[in-house]
């Protein structure tokens, strides 16, 4: 599956909009130039997936995205024999396709992946850069341009779901967080079409809500949710309704907590 975020125009990939928070573009380009795998850490909705889509288009490499979960098997990544018209044929999985094509393979929420999946990554993420395919007896050498990118949210980490040091220490890593207000305001404005002066109080509110993290809410309100709220407002929804729907209800089910969060809305919007 090619990433839907990459638009083709006149044959060339147009990079999806991404406003850098720091030097992450240069770091990713250096990793790509030296064939080094990279791990993107950060809370939900802070721009990790968008960044990868942007970088893939910038580098002109195809992107294969895999959402990891605990049912995902090594065969889902590598490939399997399938019955087609009475014949068994080998069908490459997304990882194998990326290895063959010199593409970027992006493993989203990699901590959710099972042990047998992470083991497959080991020979690919050290200087061997090979993918052994047991079922066919092939040992694929990665085509130049192949790059493994993985992401995870350290906030959800628990003892059962962490990466082993032998896996972690095969990746460079970049720590992401929500953009500072002077970046988040133009990001939300660009994504939603709401003018910056109307986005400003939403971002101010988001940062007040983020300060509540850990007390009553598990995760701070994401850039994604601010974009949702701004999109609803730009579409004509009254501000309070949009905020309740996009920035309060998604954070908590607890009536007391929500009342506390709504007090912050009143503090910002009056
Ligand atoms: N720096 C940025 N430039 C442009 N858009 C951004 C940026 N940061 C966040 N966004 C916006 O935030 C939305 C959410 O970002 P994204 O989907 O990349 O989050 P994520 O970190 O991958 O989250 P998750 O861990 O839940 O998958 C994007 O669709 C985009 O609208
Ligand atoms: Mg993502």
From TrEMBL:
Keywords for this entry? ATP-binding, Nucleotide-binding
**In this entry, which stretches build a coiled coil?**
none
Q: Which SUPFAM superfamilies match?
A: P-loop containing nucleoside triphosphate hydrolases
Which InterPro entries does this one have? ATPase_dyneun-rel_AAA, CbbQ/NirQ/NorQ/GpvN, CbbQ_C, P-loop_NTPase
Q: Which residues form the CbbQ/NirQ/NorQ C-terminal domain?
A: 184-268
Which Gene Ontology molecular-function terms are recorded?
ATP binding; ATP hydrolysis activity
The ATPase dynein-related AAA domain, residue ranges: 37-171
State the Pfam families in the record.
Answer: AAA_5 (PF07728), CbbQ_C (PF08406)
Q: Which family is this sequence assigned to?
A: Belongs to the CbbQ/NirQ/NorQ/GpvN family.
Q: What is this protein called?
A: Nitric oxide reductase NorQ protein
Species whose genome carries this gene: Celeribacter neptunius
């Amino acid at each position: 599956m090619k990433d839907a975020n990459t638009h083709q125009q006149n044959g060339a990939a147009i990079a999806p909009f991404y406003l850098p928070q720091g030097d992450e573009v240069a770091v990713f380009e250096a990793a790509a130039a030296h064939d080094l795998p990279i791990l993107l850490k950060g809370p939900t909705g802070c721009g990790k997936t968008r960044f990868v889509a942007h970088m893939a288009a910038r580098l002109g490499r195809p992107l294969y995205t895999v959402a990891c979960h605990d049912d995902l098997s090594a065969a889902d990544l590598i490939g399997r024999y399938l019955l087609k018209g009475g014949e068994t044929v080998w069908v490459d999985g997304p990882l194998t396709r990326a290895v063959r094509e010199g593409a970027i393979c992006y493993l989203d929420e990699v901590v959710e992946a099972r042990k047998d999946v992470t083991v497959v990554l080991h020979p690919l993420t050290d200087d061997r850069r090979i993918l052994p395919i047991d079922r066919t007896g092939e040992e694929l050498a990665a085509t130049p341009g192949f790059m493994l990118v993985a992401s995870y949210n350290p906030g959800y980490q628990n003892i059962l779901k962490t990466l082993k040091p032998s896996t972690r220490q095969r990746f460079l890593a970049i720590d992401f967080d929500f953009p500072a207000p002077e970046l988040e305001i133009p990001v939300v404005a660009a994504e939603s079409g709401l003018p910056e002066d109307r986005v400003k109080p939403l971002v101010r509110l988001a940062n007040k809500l983020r300060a509540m993290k850990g007390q009553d809410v598990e995760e701070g309100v994401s850039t994604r949710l601010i974009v949702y709220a701004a999109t609803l407002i730009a579409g004509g929804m009254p501000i309070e309704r949009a905020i309740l729907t996009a920035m309060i209800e998604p954070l908590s089910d607890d009536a007391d907590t929500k009342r506390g969060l709504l007090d912050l809305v009143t503090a910002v919007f009056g």
